[in-house]
Amino acid sequence: MGAVPTEKAPPSAQPTARRRAVPWAIVLLWLAVVALAGPYAGKLGDVQRDNIVDYLPAGADSTQVARIQQALPGGESTDLVVVYHRDGGLTATDRATAGRQIADIAAAHRLTGERPPAAIPAKDGATLMYPLSSTEPGVDNDARAALVEDIRERLGTEGPDAGLTVEVGGPGAMQSDMEAVFETIDGTLMIATVIVVAVLLILTYRSPFLWLVPLVVVGVAALASRAVIHGLVQGFDLTVTSQSAGIMTVLVFGAGTDYALLLVARYREELRRLPRPHDAMVAALRGCGPAVLASSGTVAAGLLCLLAADLNSARGLGPVGAVGVVCALAAMLTLLPAVLVLLGRRVFWPLVPVHGSQAAQRRSLFAAMGSSASRRPAAVLVLGTLLLGTLALGVFNLPGSVAQEDSFTERPESVSAMRTLADAYPERSSQPISVIAPTAGADEALTEARATEGVVAAERGRSGDGWTAIAVFAKDAPETPGETATIKALRAGLEDSYVGGPSAQQIDLEDTNTRDSKVVIPLVLGAVVLILIALLRSLVAPLILIVAVVAVWGAAMGLGGLFFGPVFDFGGIDPGLPLLSFVFLVALGVDYGIFLMHRMREEALAGAEPAAAALTALRTTGGVIASAGIVLAATFAVLMNLPLVALVEMGFVVAVGVLLDTFLVRTYLVTSASLLLGRRVWWPGGLSRRAPDTTPTDPAQRSSLAGV
Q1: φ and ψ at 84, to 5 degrees?
Q2: Spatial contact of 619 and 383, defined as CB atoms under 8 Å apart
Q3: Does the structure show a pLDDT above 90 at 353?
Q4: What is the pLDDT averaged over residues 670-696?
Q5: Which of 355, 672, 685, 708 is deepest in the core (most CB within 10 A)?
Q6: Which helix (H) or strand (E) holds 467?
Q7: At what angle do helices 610-637 and 577-605 cross, to 10 degrees?
Q8: Can you tell me whether residue 476 is helix, strand or coil?
Q9: Max CA-CA distance within the chain?
Q10: Which residues lie across from 501 on neighbouring strands?
């Protein structure tokens, strides 16, 4: 689009001392924020909680078991299994070594039980296991990790004979290995995200300086968001896990960079039209501000809908993510404009937008795409819809819920030990089912548990505060259909008791995520639709955008079904993946629809015919939407480098969904639907009933969005 004729700035736009002082005041204000927030942002890791109960449903049986266990004498127990194995059979020396090592551990640590740990030999004579339980760490994650690490060091002190393997497994060891992964998430994720965003900004702006500005500003937003979250934890006991903190980092960098791309693109065009950077920035903010506000509003509202979830980790993620998005919005609409105005045109070097110049004329890829869609919009819409529907069929190939031992992309020692036990002890589970019964009825509960079908043994454990722990061993391996049936039978037969443990937790996670999806998904859709109606003054346009993003989510999940098992060799999907990916794809994906539709409405209000408005909107917004989509997809793809299956799956689904939304749905399907509907896309607003006023409005509204 050619440049709009230059105009002399009106007297009200002439620079004044007060106006020149505003950008400096904003920068100084943010410097104060950084100074105040810095110490608290660094302490966020200290208040993150990764205990089992923080990832469980609030009202589930397994959650009650975990909480009551923490209140029993000695606090929460750390349950471990030391596994000795030699192919071909254990020797007498092996058994003697095992006895000495276990005695050393018992002498060094406070183990539960009245008797020393007893060996349980496998029938094939090749494996020996020692179940251990200690209340020494309590609920302190660092103390638990130290206990597991010390036991592993003691087991390696004697240097077992060649061929003898010694591993530490059990729920306590697996939780320790999981926490070791969580400790690396913040640093790894931050570094990888910064590198990815920096590279993409350099490629987008082709400037040695400009890319640094949004990167620094989004870094300030990330620091501020961490400080705010720390304050919410202190003031309202908000649950923040390593997972939610990591996702917040991705959201801040992804959404913040998107907003920066939109604002900078509009600002560049206004600099060609207006002589002073201050006036150009004011015009840019007026032009794209409503779309950016609505975009951030949909993301924040969608995330806050997670407060209705029963799953503790999902419910905590809602406000954590919303705070990140709001901080990104605040920085991009205040600090970024102030810095750009102070730096002036020279920040765009070597491609400086000179006042009165025209943008380089080159054939736009998105103009070509729009032309192809306009020739046969019905065919394009049908073919695109069929493609998304075909991809969505892949959901039928999705594996079941991932087992705990398959939660890592790289097998830690605890998982290796569990697999050794599963092969060596097919007649019984090595992982107990935890039953918490009222002490007054503990004997009856123990008898009932032993009589339950599928149970091979049950032992009475600690008592306190009116509750007694019972360890129940099933005949089937952990997280198999047989053990699941045993857990359900125990819950049905044991009145006034709670049945928990790792396998029961997985069952509760699946049930709760199903329930949460039925509650949260309608809330998300409702919140997003209301925001779209308020922005677009229409019912039809919001419906188009909502249907489009839901179709994208289905196709992205279908691609997950085609990749998770066959390509990535994952044993299952995280139970929370469908709900969380839906929230992210709907809330984030509708952003690009907002940018496109808002520009389309602006063109229509200025007098463009429906077809021209749709094609102009695509041509002028396509480039920046593509850049923003690539940045957002790349930031979520960073999650795929982490060693947890749940985060890899989340990163994959959201990244491919954003790319589908950017290059297929916005470019072809939404444009084609708009071309077919014409003015009816704005029904029941005024644009649908009469031709708009063709008298040009404010020049700022008539300038090109360039990318917005």
Answers
A1: -110, 130
A2: no
A3: no
A4: 76
A5: 708
A6: strand 467-474
A7: 150
A8: coil
A9: 97
A10: none
**629 burial level (CB within 10 Å; 0-12, 13-18, 19+):** buried
pLDDT at residue number 111: 84
Which residue's structure tokens are 């050794």?
Answer: 420
- CB–CB of 381/387 below 8 Å? no
3 state SS of 539: coil
Packing angle, helices 502-536 and 481-493, rounded to 10: 90
User: Which of 610, 587, 564, 568 lies closest to 658, judged by CA?
Assistant: 587
* Tokens standing for residue 115: 């008797």
**Rounded-to-integer distance, Cα 16 and Cα 8, Å:** 16
Please tell me whether residue 128 adopts helix, strand or coil conformation: strand
Nearest to 563 by CA among 651, 673, 486, 477: 651
CB burial string 52-81: b at 16+ within 10 A, e below: bbbbbbeebbbbbbbbbbbebebebbbbbb
Element housing 372 (H / E): helix 365-375
pLDDT over 90 for what percent of the chain? Answer: 43
Q: Render 83-122 in DSSP notation, one character per residue.
A: EEEETT---HHHHHHHHHHHHHHHHHS-B-SSS----EE-
What is the spatial distance between Cα 373 and Cα 383, in angstroms, rounded to a whole number? 11
Beta carbons of 432 and 194 less than 8 angstroms apart: no
Using CA atoms, how far apart are residues 657 and 654, in angstroms rounded to an integer? 5
Tokens of residue 519, six digits:
């509650």
Q: Dihedral of CA 27/30/34/36: which sign?
A: positive
How many helices and strands (H and E) does the chain possess?
23, 8
Q: Which of 215, 326, 327 is nearest to 264 (CA)?
A: 215
Using CA atoms, how far apart are residues 155 and 100, in angstroms rounded to an integer?
10
**pLDDT tens-digit map of 296-343:** 999 999 999 999 999 988 999 999 999 999 999 999 999 999 999 999
State how far the Cα of 343 lies from the Cα of 326, in Å rounded to an integer.
Answer: 25
β-sheet with 498-500: strand ranges across: 455-464, 467-474, 433-438, 498-500
Q: What angle separates helix 577-605 from helix 242-273, to the nearest 10 degrees?
A: 10
Q: What is the DSSP string of 43-58?
A: THHHH----GGGGSBT
Rounded CA separation 5/444 (Å): 89
Residue whose C-alpha is closest to residue 26's, from 271, 376, 278: 278
**Which amino acid is located at 189 in the chain?**
L
Single pTM value for the model: 0.84
- Show the beta-strand stretches assigned E in 318-454: 433-438
| Letter string b/e over residues 221-250, b meaning 16 or more CB atoms within 10 A of that residue's CB | bbbbbbbbbbebbeeeebbbbbbbbbbbbb
Rounded (10°) CA dihedral 221, 222, 224, 229? 140
Please answer whether residues 507 and 466 qualify as being in contact, where contact means their C-beta atoms are separated by less than 8 angstroms.
no
Nearest to 699 by CA among 393, 287, 294: 287
